[in-house]
């Protein structure tokens, strides 16, 4: 459904040429739910804006739904739904009017657009708001309306650019319920960008991690975590000498990394820590070593990002945001919401 | 066909909130009355160029001025939608870009058309001689011209990104000299030689002269033809620049 080869985009700024996306290649199959994860300024939005024909590509090529983004942008636009970072609805327009206008923009007939608008108002729980001005909606309601707008023409592919940024936890959860439900009903391909780790982790079936305009990882979250981060295991022994002996045994475990022993505490990183742990403790017991405490911490996608880049996603979000805002390269959520 | 439909869709979306606000409509009706009531009494005591009643000379100039200033600043309304993301929402649809611009421009021009008709109707009993066919033709010509100026204004709004101050400065520093040099409010025949020469390089001058001719009932003349050429030239260039700016925009 989505295919990109060596996509690049550079911007001219006062500070010189900035390469926002540097050689992005990706493939998304029909019906997949894929998340672009990365700090602000990693090039996620720029990539999505190129795939949705909103931004001309500097070099490379991409097809979306079988249409070339550069040669047949109208074909792409007909196939996709796009929910941008900002608020799609106009503040002085009424909710239902905006939906009908959107349908008409996709060349739907008037009656068809009205029928579909009413249907989506129901699906996204906006019924009571149909005749209200969009400016009077809450943040969560506006976002649900944005999604309804993106779905008016029943697209095969839906792009969601930072769909839940700026929403409170309750509205975020509610928004996701709707997206998941819609996907189950329609089976459409969903491509989203997010800088929320937990969102990518729980919602996406496949995560592509972007950093500095490049894709640095692309896999199912579970596999990324197992391969690139591993479980953090921490054991408490009864004496320091026991801990030293246990550390020697731990060295022989498959896939083990970063074995450290301080005082009576032994820590290491390992894949499938939860299943290996009971067996390892039994082994230690047979050698006459007593384990007093045991703890396994499952990795997060932040650990994955940390192991790939040496930086935490949370910290780099802030740092990159600051520098790139100065450069005025892209439009950022912080600017929109401020 | 799609082009016409897209234009209508865009127009209908934009005009909706205007038609729903009674104070906008009320102000829209009062505004031309102010021009007529507060300015025209002065005219009768000043010697104007051209033939006929001073109103015959003043009304078309005033309408050109209204069109110019409204369309020059209509990019301002787009700035808000550029920042919020609702313009981007339309760019992601298959809608024709020039049609989007024309629909938006017509939304600004429709109330002006209504105002112009009110002014003409009210000025008639005070001495404006009506030439319905040529006057309507003149108004249509202004719509064409207005679409072009509006498209340029939208292009400027997109190019100046989110800097509203820059947009205001540039748009007004272009519109003001154009208007003054176009002889919109005072006849250029009264100007010193250098100013008169400068005015001949201003495309607006020819449009204003064509409008005055049309308001006097003239149709088949070089003056009118020049105005038609200027109006369509501005519309063509405006839409071309507008569509190109949208395509290249990084937003």
Automatic annotation (TrEMBL), chain A:
Alphabetic keyword roster: ATP-binding, Nodulation, Nucleotide-binding, Transport
Keyword DNA repair: no
GO molecular function: ATP binding; ATP hydrolysis activity
Keyword Nucleotide-binding: yes
Protein name, entry field: ATP-binding cassette domain-containing protein
Alphabetical list of SUPFAM superfamilies matching this protein: P-loop containing nucleoside triphosphate hydrolases
Family of the protein in this entry: Belongs to the ABC transporter superfamily.
Domain ABC transporter: 2-237
Domain of life: Bacteria
Species classification: Bacteria, Pseudomonadati, Pseudomonadota, Gammaproteobacteria, Oceanospirillales
TrEMBL record, chain B:
Subcellular locations according to the entry: Cell inner membrane; Membrane
GO cellular component, one term: ATP-binding cassette (ABC) transporter complex
Domain named ABC transmembrane type-2: residues: 23-249
UniProt keyword Flavoprotein present: no
Protein's membrane topology: Multi-pass membrane protein
PANTHER family named among the record's database cross-references: ABC-TYPE MULTIDRUG TRANSPORT SYSTEM, PERMEASE COMPONENT, NODULATION PROTEIN J
Protein family membership: Belongs to the ABC-2 integral membrane protein family.
Record's protein name: Transport permease protein
The organism of origin for this protein: Natronospirillum operosum
């Amino acid at each position: 459904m989505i295919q990109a080869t060596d996509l690049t985009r550079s911007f001219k700024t006062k500070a010189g040429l900035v390469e926002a996306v540097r050689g992005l290649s990706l493939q998304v199959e029909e019906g997949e739910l894929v998340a672009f994860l990365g700090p602000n300024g990693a090039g996620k939005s720029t990539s999505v804006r190129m795939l949705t024909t909103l931004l001309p590509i500097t070099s490379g090529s991409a097809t979306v739904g079988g249409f070339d983004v550069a040669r047949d942008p109208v074909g792409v636009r007909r196939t996709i739904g796009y929910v941008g970072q900002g608020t799609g609805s106009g503040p002085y327009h009424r909710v239902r009017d905006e939906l009908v206008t959107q349908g008409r923009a996709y060349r739907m007939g008037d009656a068809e657009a009205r029928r579909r608008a009413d249907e989506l108002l129901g699906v996204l729980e906006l019924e009571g708001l149909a005749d209200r001005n969009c400016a009077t909606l809450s943040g969560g309601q506006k976002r649900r309306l944005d999604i309804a707008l993106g779905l008016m023409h029943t697209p095969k592919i839906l792009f969601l650019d930072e769909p839940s940024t700026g929403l409170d936890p309750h509205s975020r959860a509610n928004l996701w319920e709707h997206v998941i439900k819609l996907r189950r009903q329609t089976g459409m391909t969903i491509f989203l960008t997010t800088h929320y780790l937990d969102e990518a982790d729980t919602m996406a079936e496949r995560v592509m991690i972007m950093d500095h305009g490049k894709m640095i990882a692309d896999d199912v979250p579970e596999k990324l975590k197992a391969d690139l981060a591993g479980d953090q295991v921490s054991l408490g022994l009864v004496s320091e000498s026991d801990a030293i002996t246990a550390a020697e045994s731990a060295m022989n475990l498959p896939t083990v990394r970063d074995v450290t022993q301080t005082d009576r505490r032994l820590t290491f990183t390992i894949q499938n820590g939860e299943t290996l742990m009971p067996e390892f403790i039994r082994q230690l017991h047979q050698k006459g070593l007593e384990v007093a405490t045991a703890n396994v911490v499952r990795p997060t996608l932040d650990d994955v990002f940390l192991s790939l880049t040496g930086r935490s996603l949370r910290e780099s979000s802030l740092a990159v945001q600051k520098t790139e805002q100065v450069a005025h390269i892209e439009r950022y959520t912080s600017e929109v919401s401020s | 066909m799609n082009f016409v439909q897209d234009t209508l869709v865009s127009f209908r979306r934009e005009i909706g909130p205007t038609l729903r606000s009674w104070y906008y409509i009320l102000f829209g009706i009062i505004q031309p009355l102010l021009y007529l009531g507060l300015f025209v009494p002065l005219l009768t005591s000043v010697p104007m160029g051209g033939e006929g009643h001073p109103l015959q000379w003043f009304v078309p100039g005033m309408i050109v001025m209204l069109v110019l200033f409204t369309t020059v600043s209509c990019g301002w309304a787009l700035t808000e939608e550029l920042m919020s993301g609702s313009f981007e929402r339309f760019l992601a649809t298959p809608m024709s870009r020039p049609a989007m611009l024309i629909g938006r421009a017509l939304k600004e021009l429709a109330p002006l058309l209504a105002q112009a008709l009110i002014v003409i109707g009210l000025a008639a009993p005070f001495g404006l001689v009506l030439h319905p066919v040529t006057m309507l033709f003149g108004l249509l010509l202004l719509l064409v011209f207005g679409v072009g100026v509006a498209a340029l204004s939208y292009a400027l709004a997109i190019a100046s990104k989110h800097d509203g101050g820059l947009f205001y400065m540039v748009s007004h520093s272009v519109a003001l000299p154009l208007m003054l040099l176009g002889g919109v409010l005072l006849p250029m025949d009264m100007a010193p030689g250098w100013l008169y020469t400068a005015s001949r390089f201003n495309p607006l001058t020819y449009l204003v002269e064509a409008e005055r001719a049309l308001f006097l009932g003239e149709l088949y003349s070089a003056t009118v033809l020049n105005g038609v050429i200027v109006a369509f030239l501005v519309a063509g260039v405006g839409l071309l620049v507008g569509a190109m700016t949208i395509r290249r925009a990084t937003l």
